[in-house]
Design a protein that fits this description.
nine-stranded antiparallel beta sheet; Alpha-Beta Plaits; five-stranded antiparallel beta sheet; single chain; Uridine Diphospho-n-acetylenolpyruvylglucosamine Reductase, domain 3; 373 residues
Length: 373
């Protein structure tokens, strides 16, 4: 079993001393919104490097649409600061309401519904400062794209799961907030129908910001669509979307949501209730994966974001094994949330970890971070 020590870190000097003064492997953590610390099958000793107190916005220039914050800064604090100037972080990673930190969001690489329109978190990380396995402070990327040269460390750190370095400061690109948001919900008969209707809507010049499939009931999934634009135009947008659905001969209960508070709650209602697995997949392969899983009682598809490009499954212990085999056969990879930090929380295809391990060995020859295999 793992023996863990938690060390609270608040500056670079203390972090570098930690690398030089103790021999154990180091695992960076924030508010631990994505971690399950109740069990582990690893052996040895690990120092959990708690960065939650190393927080705060260090540089913010609204005119440049860039914000720099320390790794322990809560995403909610960043969003609140941006809102003062009519800006936001559009990739809206999950866990904001639970206290997720900037460093944890980048390390896990998770995205929210805004990924469909704006892109993933990795598209917004411009610069990172981190301590590598030798205890060196490394700067990667740049606040101006044309000034950034060399290895693309910002992209490398996204989804690295704390195994490439300890991030201390991160610079993000941000965007102006939409003037207004409105959503609609349509109860349909099957996941296939959700995907077909989403493709119909995406094929039209509509200001779609997000599309989710909510599996509130296996036989009655709900298509949830968000639109962004000027307040005066959104009623017409909703009418146009409704007419496209009607023209396609789709039958289902249609609900439009225009109240801003209700609309915001609609998209904030997401979290990690029980063991969930996020699978990156395109629409056709999602449908094939569902067919291969059948009606396994231990696996429940709860939500699909990005018009079916990310699927979230809730699984029992046995269901995790079944899903692991199905993802391997389909050459897909799943990330288990919450996960035990001492075990690689991946299901399915793990071939990419071979290349990741080679990069890790170059950056961490002393193996001070947990391994990918």
């Amino acid at each position: 079993m793992v023996s863990s020590e938690i060390v609270r870190i608040e500056n670079v000097e203390a972090l570098q001393r930690l690398f030089h003064e103790q021999p154990h492997q180091i695992l960076p953590v924030g508010n631990r919104t994505k971690l399950d610390l109740t069990q582990s099958s690893a052996t040895g000793s690990t120092v959990m490097c708690d960065l939650s107190a190393w927080a705060g916005v260090t540089i913010y220039d609204p005119s440049e649409f860039l914000i720099t914050a320390q790794a322990g800064t809560r995403l909610s604090d960043i969003q609140a600061r941006l809102a003062e100037y009519g800006q936001f972080l559009p990739c809206d990673p999950p866990g904001i309401e639970a206290g997720a930190t900037l460093g944890g969001a980048v390390a896990s690489g998770l995205n929210g519904p805004g990924r469909l329109l704006y892109g993933s978190l990795r598209d917004f990380v411009m610069e990172v400062v981190f301590v590598d396995g030798l205890g060196n402070l490394v700067h990667g990327g740049g606040k101006v794209v044309k000034n950034a040269a060399g290895f693309d460390f910002p992209k490398l750190m996204v989804g690295s799961l704390g195994r490439m370095g300890v991030m201390t400061e991160i610079t993000l690109k941000v965007l102006p907030k939409p003037q207004c948001l409105a959503s609609c919900r349509l109860t349909l008969a099957s996941l296939d129908e959700c995907y077909a209707v989403s493709q119909t809507l995406l094929g039209q010049p509509l200001p779609i910001a997000a599309i989710d499939f909510l599996m509130t009931a296996p036989t009655e999934p709900t298509l949830q669509v968000r639109f962004a634009g000027p307040a005066a135009s959104l009623p017409k947008v909703l009418e146009r979307a409704k007419s496209l659905v009607d023209a396609a001969g789709v039958e289902g209960q249609w609900t439009a949501i225009t109240d801003s508070a209700e609309e915001q709650r609609l998209w904030n209602e997401r979290g990690f209730a029980g063991a969930q697995v996020r699978v990156g997949v395109d629409g056709p392969h999602l449908l094939e994966l569902q067919q291969s899983l059948g009606e396994d009682a231990g696996i429940e598809l709860t939500r699909c974001t990005g018009a079916g490009t990310e699927a979230w499954y809730r699984c029992s212990v046995k269901g995790l094994e079944t899903l692991d085999h199905a993802l391997s056969a389909a050459k897909l990879t799943g990330l288990k949330i919450p996960f035990c930090p001492y075990q690689l929380p991946l299901l399915g295809d793990r071939q990419w970890t071979v290349g990741a391990t080679r990069v890790q060995r170059a950056m961490d020859p002393a193996q001070r971070f947990l391994a990918y295999n």
